[in-house]
Amino acid sequence: MRWIVLLMMGLAFNGQANAEGMLEYKLTIKGGHFFPETVEVPAGVKFKLLITNQGPGPEEFESYELKKESVMGEGVTRPMVFAPLKPGTYPFFGEFHPETAKGRIIAK
Question: How many structural domains comprise the chain?
Answer without folding.
Answer: 1
